[in-house]
Amino acid sequence: MKRIPIILALTLPVLSACTSGDAATSSDTYEGSVKDAWITGKIETVYELNGHLNAFEIDTDVANGVVHLTGMVESDIDRDLAGQIAEGIDGVVDVRNDLSVEETARQTAAARSDRDEQRTFGGWVDDATTTAAVKAKLVGNSNTKGLQIDVDTRDNLVTLSGEVSTAEVKQLAEEIARNTGDVKDVRNQLVVAVR
Known about the structure:
By secondary structure, this protein is an alpha/beta fold. It folds into two domains: 1-115, no CATH class; 119-195, Histidine-containing Protein, Chain: A, CATH 3.30.1340. 46% of the residues lie in helices and 22% in strands. It has six helices and seven strands; from the N terminus they run H-H-E-E-H-E-E-H-H-E-E-H-E. The chain has helices spanning 3-18, 32-49, 76-87, 105-115, 121-140, 167-178, and strands at 58-63, 66-73, 94-97, 100-101, 149-154, 157-164, 185-192.
């Protein structure tokens, strides 16, 4: 299969966005939040290039090498495939596979994709790079690093979702995203938890 060189080539922009210096091909070169962002970028690239998984919306969160998969897939086989791929990525310590199986997942993802403007492959790579850079900065900040903040990027518009503890943390996460690379705007959909 010729996908492996393509995958490695696609992860280089993610690496360079998260580090200053030469990009490498091993997670051993990185530590902490940068390593987690490297793993996230690599997994998401592999999913995008996989003919069985690219039709689904799979959210990938990585903390200290532990991958947490959420979203929907069409079958148990797709769920297991996503988990096995994540386990095979260099630097992954463990995988929590919380993907739900819905028979209509492919149609749901396709309908959502049809509503959105289609991205070029280069645009997708740029967005994946921005997502990885924002995640790295969020994980690198002592006030946001332990939070489950989902980051999605489309045409350099970043959407933040998830739950945070205070309005101040919500605003901080937005400012961190806004001050990252080529981000044009931030849609802050974070919810402040009521305790």
